[in-house]
Structure formats: C-alpha cells, structure tokens
Give the backbone structure.
Amino acid sequence: MRFLAQHPGHFDAFLLQGMVLTRLGRRKDAARIFTGILQRHPACAEACYHLGRLCLQSHDYAGAAGLLHKAVQIDPVFAEAWYMLGNALYNRLCLEEAAQAYLRALQAQPSFDNPRCYLTPVPEKLRRTYQTHFYSNLGRVQRKLGQLEAARASYEAALRIDPDNALAHSRLLFLLSFHVLCEPAELLAAHRAWDARHGAQGRAHAFVHESGRTPARAGQRLRIGYLSPDFHQHAVSYFIAPLLAHHDPDQVEVFCYADNAVTDAVSHRLREQVNHWRTIQGESDAAVARCIHDDRIHILIDLAGHTTTRLKVFTYRPAPIQATYLGYFATTGLDAMDYWITDAVLHPADTVEQASEALWRLPRCCLAYQPAPEAPPVTARPAEKPVDGGIVFGSFNQITKISDEAVALWSKVLQAVPGSRLLLKCQMLQDTAIRRRLLARFEAAGLPASRLELHTFTPAYRDHLDLYNRVDILLDTIPRTGGSTTADALWMGVPVITLAGHLFVQRLSATMLHALNLEELIATTPEEYIEKAVALAQDQRRLYRLKAGLRQRMKDSPLCDGQGLARAMEAAYHNMWQRHLAARKAE
C-alpha cells in the first residue's frame, strides 16, 4: 500500500493488489481496484480479465461476457480470457459462441507465466489441470450441441493431459451413459476404470466399522444418509421430496449431506423434513467421509452418481452399506457401492444392464413424484369438439436428448397425422444457432419448419407447466427417455408415448407409465412407437377421455404414493442391514 501511495501510476502494482484482494475473498474491494485501473488504462486486457472473473463469480454473466470480450479484443492470444469468456457464454446459453471461445483458448495455449494473471509461478501439475479444464468444458458444450463424438474426443484429450482429473472422467462417463454410446460390458469397464484411478486414495484410507455401530436390538431405527448436490429446485428434488417427507421416524433417522452450489426455498423445505442436515459444499472428500462416519450412518445413499465427483466420498467406505439411487442412470463402477436401488420395470429379470453393484429391485415403482404446488389445472379439450389446427404433439426435453433417431421417428408420426404440429420447449432454444440447426434436422427428415413451434425459457414455473395444456400427446425422446418431463406431462394430463429400450436410461418413462397401468403407451420397437402415437392421435375420443382422467389416475397410482415408497425403501434398508449382519456373523 505504501508503494501504491508513492507510485499511483504503477498499474502493475494495482493489478497485484486486486489479485491479492481476490484471493482473500474481498471481491468488492478487488473490483474497485480493477475498475480504477480501467478508468486510467482502458486497454488493460488483464484488468478486463480479472474484473470479468469477478463478474462470473457473482453470476453476472452478461457483465462478464462484455469484459472478457474486451480482453480478447485487446489481446487475441490471451488464452485464459478466451477460456473465461467461454464459461460466461456457456452460462448465458450462447453455446455456439462458447465452443468457439474454448477452441480459441486451446489454439492460444495459456502461458501461465504472465505475472498480471498469476500471483506465483504455476507448477506443472496445475498447468495440466488448466489445460484439462479447457478440453473438459469444450466437451461439455459439444455434448449440449449434440456433437457427441467431438465431445468424447475432447474429454479423452483432457484425460490424456491429466488422467487424475476426476471431473473430466465423470463427464466422459455421463456422455457414454446418457446417450447410450457403447455396449453394456464396455460401459461397465469404463466406470470401473474411474474407480481404479480415482478411488485409490479412499480405499487406502477406508474406515473400519466397529461392532458398536450395530443397532443394540432388533427393530432399532437405522441411520440413513442421503448425499446429493441437488437438494434445491432440480429434477431430483421432485422425486426425493416425497421419500423424505414420508420416512417413518420410528424406523429411520435421516441425515442429508447437501453439496448444493445454491440454496433456495426447496432446500429449506427439504431441510425441514429430515432429522439432520449437513452442508458439505467446499469440504474435502476425506472430511465429508469423516463426518459421515462420525455420524455413525448405517446406510449411505448416493443420489448423483457421475453427475458429480462426490463419488470419491464413497470410496472411503464411511458407512457399512452404500447404495446408489435416483440421480444417475448407470452403474457407478465403485467396488465400495453395494447396491443399485431400482425396480422390475427398469431392470427386468432378463436385463442386459451390467453393474458393479447388486441390483436391489423394489416391489413397486422405485420413483415417487411430488407435483409442483403451483401447477395449473388440466384443460383437456372436449372430445366432441373439433381440434383447432389439428393434433399437437410435443416434447419438453433437453435438446441433447433429441437424437437423430427421435427426429426421424417424430417426423414419421407427424407425416402420418395430417394437420398435426410439433411443439418443442427447451431453454437452449434461445440460442439462434441451435434453433436453426434443429429446424434443419427436421427439414432433412421431411418435416418443414412450418409444422414446428419452438418455445424457450419461461421464468415462472406455473407458465412452464401451463404450456403442457397446449399439447395433446408427448413424444418421448430416444434412446434416453424423459424423467421429470414425463412426470410433469402426466400430471398435466398429457399422455406420453415411449420406446422402452434395454437399459435403465431407456426405461424411465416405462416404469412411470407402468405405475399408472398405461402399458398401452409403451412401445418396444420404432414401428410400434409410430403406430401407437398415430392411433392415439386418430382416436380423439379415447385421447381426450384419457387426458381428462390422467391427473386423478396419477394421484391414485404408486407414482404419487410417497408413503408407499418410503415403506418399501425402509423395508429394503432393514433387509440390507440384516444381510450385512449375517455376513459379519459368518465371517
């Protein structure tokens, strides 16, 4: 500070001061320093970069994008600024531009030697980590753009640079699983490779569970832990909330380990439903494992799989029994994960799915859905009145789920139903490049743009759900089926035509429709998918009779029976525990 007082024009020193303040967490003070530099030196790319990073951290993505654009205009080979610009554009859903920014970052290659960007010399391992992030984030954008092979290549490039990067490795597994890009045996081997690489430290420091952890008497309640980053307004929360709300306090004592990046009203409601709430955001995997072990958890449940890197916590074996449920759609690959909780529709007796865990099939649908309280009423059109403009098919799924196979099938369905239209809603459709490419894909499949109606983000969730009232039949995506979108559609009185494949990720809609006794909407071949969709569209009395009664049917089904799911889960937990005790006794 004394140096700055004596040399007020020495902006390198001011940059250093701003970087130190940023490192200390004093963001407002740092922003004031960088803003002052830009007032005196408008062409300082580094000040634009650092101020842009602060905007990113504050979720001001528009402000960040503007500053980082300016930084790369001043210095076109400023790799770090290109990378941060990509992050800002990604968060603004400008995905095409984000991909280009990441590519420019890779072309420029970060120097890591710029004293105006780094307080100390960057060690070689950290250099590899930065480069891995460049490729990993590029892969994330490419996946969302539907460039699946390019995304796979980017993730593999990231792992060649830094094989220890668990996040890039999990993103690769997510890609392979979500889009069904390989055979079951290859998928299992890929997941086991993650455990072999990233689970070694946990295995080396795994906890030993003393006999004192065992309940003192038969029937004593078990301590159940749920670990997730999604205890907030998220698709997972709509399915975990009914379970948490209906757990029997005489049977289980519930702990939630919340790795939330955000906390909202949903978080507060969930917190009120459980006995104990632990915030673990920012804690190391070893510290979280220690916390779980110290809480004397009997059964620990993973609710995220490879959508997060918190699977490392499970490699420490902090609980005697560990299981995965709900938040992922394939095996975790972990030796330390004992069970995968599922049901007989998701995993029939002849399933081809391969898993490192033992499949634990509940005797009912393994899902329970909590409808949004703000959901509007269903406004099914009466069967005796003509449909204005014809049947409206729809999809509210992510663009990443709309595969070429789905485009081809949907186009054939609409071609077979004269006057019909296809309503698509997805937040990513605000990107004009994505809209153009999607319309071009349908044009190539024989469906003109005039028969498509595109919708993007709606700020109010009630308005989002109300848009389902514009849709007559939902066409499920292929191969990855809908999850929360299927449940939302059924609640809003919209029947869903699905094609059930052979894997969990291809059968989520099927298990929900089975729970409603609507097996007639489940196809097993592409031809049957088209036939079922066309037949329902052409039988309007059947269609609107189905729509009018769908919400009540759902209310009366296992899909809205949180209490029934809780009893089934608790029985499963006690059976798992008895198996564990029997195995220990045998040892």
Notes: DSSP finds 24 helices and 13 strands in the chain. The first strand starts at residue 222 and ends at 228. Residues 390 and 418 are 8 Å apart (CA to CA).
